[in-house]
Task: inverse folding
């Protein structure tokens, strides 16, 4: 706390250390410390189990083996092709889902007739296990990246569009009335109330969309692909190269975690106006 | 601009009908209300809950259309919301993601009559007028109910309307805050010099604030009684205990009581 610019009501001397609800010095790091500790502990236990040969290394590779697999993996130039392929598939599929899903969700929330027109289709596709459409996408679009792009798009599109629509529809009618009372035109209401009020919903949709996109990526690559991290995982497990398979699996999972945390940060930034819970 | 003989708001035989989805019939909320509000006047409308007083105010603001009669401001008929009126809502209706200052600037920003810089300057001035200069950068959810209503008031004042419309702005506040806000409103009104129509179901509040109190009947709303309040200004809260004040209160009470017995409702 900055005590140099103390004002009469925030004087350092008058601020007790045991004020109710005042967090301790380490409180901010508590989640990271405990969470990180738990991860390290479980890796250690895993290593011990592997070293004791309780489970055959054929089924469960030791963490050290996985690290070795990473070193080996990145010595082979083919990994870059896998990373590039998967990366592009997610970029295109997820990018399209945002570019199309976001405006569509907003328009559906804003204009009732459009919602009535599109609701049956949304309901149909939302209830379909879209991941099961992968074979169809392969038939339609081939085993190149576009079948994967399509599956990822189908996965990410719906949470993004549906959340954006829900955001617009849950706008506070009292705020709309206040804006109208000041003579706001529709475009102004959209810019000053609908958009800022919908941002938290949009970010939630995008966060859920990332999860669906990564699931789509892996499943689609398992079914038919030439390159890609999912394909690498599949190929490795097929020949009982457990260490490389796990390495690919962890790579995908960590990507998901990192993206989710980044979006959560963004969500918290846009929530600055909400008082601390 | 004022119409001849300084009349700001003129209502002639205003009727407002609502369509009720449940009963598939329309019902009459306001029935033939006529009144004039002169320039600089503070008029309070009191009446039992559901008497159509808020409906009437919404019509003056142009948020809902009238079914019959005429409403005009300074001689111009009211057709929709306009820059010449500003509403202080019962619910603060502040944009939660905007700071106090940005909320006060909101009306100006929407109406686009002044540039960004001037809007900010004016917002500063009105935040100061309602006594929130230390909270300019706070968000509405960090403020108490009374403070939120001050922001609501400042937002309306900042647009410099010809007519202020206040819809039970203190109804949700606790008794002490409410009295204090009444005192504050009179101070601010004295500074801002605005013609005002104030809706309330609190008789004391109406007498304390207004030059003239108009009593509405129970549904449908009609003008039951018009009472000029001849109490000197500036008024302190003490005035509420003077015999003169109590006489006014008594007159309004008996009008409402009479109405209640007629309508067989005693809700106020």
Result:
């Amino acid at each position: 706390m900055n005590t140099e610019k103390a004002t009469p009501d925030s004087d350092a001397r008058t601020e007790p250390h045991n004020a109710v609800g005042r967090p301790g010095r380490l409180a901010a790091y508590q989640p990271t410390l405990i969470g990180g500790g738990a991860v390290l502990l479980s890796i250690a236990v895993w290593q011990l189990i592997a070293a004791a040969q309780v489970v055959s290394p054929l089924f469960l590779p030791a963490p050290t083996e996985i690290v070795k697999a990473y070193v080996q993996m990145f010595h082979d130039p083919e990994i870059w092709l896998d990373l590039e392929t998967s990366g592009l598939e997610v970029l295109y599929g997820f990018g399209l889902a945002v570019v199309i899903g976001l405006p569509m969700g907003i328009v559906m929330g804003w204009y009732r007739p459009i919602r009535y027109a599109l609701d049956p289709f949304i309901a149909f596709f939302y209830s379909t296990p879209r991941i099961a459409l992968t074979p169809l996408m392969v038939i339609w679009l081939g085993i190149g990246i576009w079948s994967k792009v399509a599956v990822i798009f189908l996965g990410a599109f719906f949470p993004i569009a549906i959340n954006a629509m829900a955001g617009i529809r849950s706008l506070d009618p009292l705020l709309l009335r206040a804006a109208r009372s000041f003579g706001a035109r529709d475009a102004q209401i959209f810019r000053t109330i609908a958009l800022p009020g919908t941002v938290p919903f949009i970010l939630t949709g995008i966060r859920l969309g990332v999860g669906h996109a990564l699931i789509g990526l892996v499943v689609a690559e398992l079914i038919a692909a030439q390159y890609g991290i999912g394909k690498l995982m599949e190929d490795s497990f097929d020949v009982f190269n457990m260490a490389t398979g796990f390495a690919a699996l962890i790579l995908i999972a960590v990507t998901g975690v990192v993206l989710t945390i980044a979006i959560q940060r963004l969500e918290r930034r846009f929530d600055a106006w909400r008082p601390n819970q | 601009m004022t119409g001849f003989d300084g009349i700001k708001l003129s209502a002639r035989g205003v009727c407002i009908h609502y369509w009720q989805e449940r009963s598939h019939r329309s019902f009459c909320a306001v029935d033939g209300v006529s009144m004039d509000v002169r320039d600089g006047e503070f008029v309070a409308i009191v009446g039992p809950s559901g008497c159509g007083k808020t409906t009437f105010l919404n019509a003056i603001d142009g948020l809902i259309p009238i079914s019959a009669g005429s409403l005009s401001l300074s001689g111009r008929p009211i057709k929709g919301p306009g820059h010449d009126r500003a509403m202080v809502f019962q619910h603060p209706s502040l944009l939660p993601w905007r700071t106090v200052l940005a909320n006060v600037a909101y009306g100006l920003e929407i109406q686009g009559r002044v540039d960004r810089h001037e809007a900010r300057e004016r917002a500063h001035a009105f935040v100061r007028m309602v006594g929130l200069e230390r909270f300019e950068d706070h968000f509405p959810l960090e403020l108490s109910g009374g403070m939120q209503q001050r922001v609501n008031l400042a937002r309306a004042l900042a647009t410099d309307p010809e007519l202020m419309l206040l819809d039970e702005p203190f109804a949700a506040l606790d008794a002490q805050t409410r009295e204090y806000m009444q005192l504050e409103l009179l101070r601010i009104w004295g500074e801002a010099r605005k013609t005002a129509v104030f809706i309330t179901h609190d008789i004391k509040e109406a007498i304390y604030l207004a030059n003239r109190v108009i009593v509405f009947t129970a549904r449908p709303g009609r003008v039951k009684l018009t009472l000029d309040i001849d109490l000197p200004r500036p008024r302190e809260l003490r005035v509420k205990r003077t015999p003169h004040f109590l006489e006014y209160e008594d007159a309004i009470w008996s009008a409402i009581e009479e109405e209640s017995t007629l309508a067989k409702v005693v809700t106020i």
In short: Chain A has a mean pLDDT of 88. Residues 40 and 46 of chain A are 10 Å apart (CA to CA).
